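To assess whether the prediction recovers the assembly geometry, we first specified each molecular entity separately, as shown.
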Amino acid sequence: MAKVTILGATGNVGVFAAHTISEIPYVSDMLLVGRPGREDFLAGCCRDLSDSFAARGTDVRLSYSTAISDAEGSDVIISAAGMPRRPGQDRNDLAFENAKITADTAEIIGRCAPDALLFLVTNPVDAMTAVALKYSGFKPRQVFGLGTHLDSMRLKSLIARYFRVHVSEVHTRIIGEHGESMVPLWSATTIGGIRISNLPTFSGLPAQEMIDTVRTSGEAIIRGKGATVYGPGEAIATLVRTILGDENRILTVSSHITSEIHGIGDVCIGVPARINRNGVFPVPISLEGDEVAGFRESVAKIKKVTAEVMERLEEAR
Ligand SMILES: NC(=O)c1ccc[n+]([C@@H]2O[C@H](COP(=O)([O-])OP(=O)(O)OC[C@H]3O[C@@H](n4cnc5c(N)ncnc54)[C@H](O)[C@@H]3O)[C@@H](O)[C@H]2O)c1
Ligand SMILES: O=C(O)C[C@H](O)C(=O)O
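The predicted structure of the complete assembly is given in tokenized form:
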């Protein structure tokens, strides 16, 4: 059985993630961590969630704290602490402010929960994964971000609707930045096990329109309802379930790569990774055609954002 801690638990994503994670059978303890001053809200969340556990028949020991160090003994620590973007902002506009929070948090986690897996949700998630990796002092397998998993799910849903098939029949991946430079892998997209480009209807697929929809999904949802919640919350739970169930699923998360993809490396970026109880292990893959150049571009962009953030952090600390 496992202890899961959620940082930023008073936020939109944190609260719903607590609900989705509580449904995972391996979770025995869940700790919600918020900022000092938010005790009443945290206590309210715990009572409300406990009621839902009773109604559902879930048996999770739930507690809250304003001290990150109480994450001690956690198997998985999820960080959704930090500013969300407002309409019109790019995720990268949040980089420095959220990096300060992430660096401080990661240092504490590195000391109090050295064996945990640290899962970043805070945006811009690729740069935040790199910051958390550096300041926690963890091994690369222990630190990962939600990356392009949610983007991949968004594309999967659009493809399933276009072909009028159940989502479980569609396998697809978006790699690279969780942001503008994301790269769809049509070469790795199958429907009912058949490569999408081998289907007669492929030529009519509005591929560019689909990718544009995925790229702008977050912003469109934030404009409409203030925050993306259900998509990220379920995506977070999928990853936590994969880890705690030692499932060895290959999901697309932000992970530190060295040379797994066309020799490109030294960056935290969305890539397919095998995920189990020991953490996250990028899978070496070959890309096709435009995908290579697209991935290189995405890597260059993330490296630049990450380097700028690291430099400013060094100066500020
Ligand atoms: N990677 C993804 O796919 C994805 C999806 C959704 C949201 N996000 C990101 O997750 C983060 C949270 O989003 P949200 O909608 O829940 O935001 P929110 O404003 O509702 O919640 C933010 C949380 O962070 C905490 N926080 C804010 N400043 C802090 C500080 N200085 N120190 C400690 N904690 C602090 C708040 O108390 C709150 O719990 C944002 O960065 C958002 O962009 C990422
Ligand atoms: O778009 C955002 O800022 C939130 C998140 O990254 C998302 O894609 O839902």
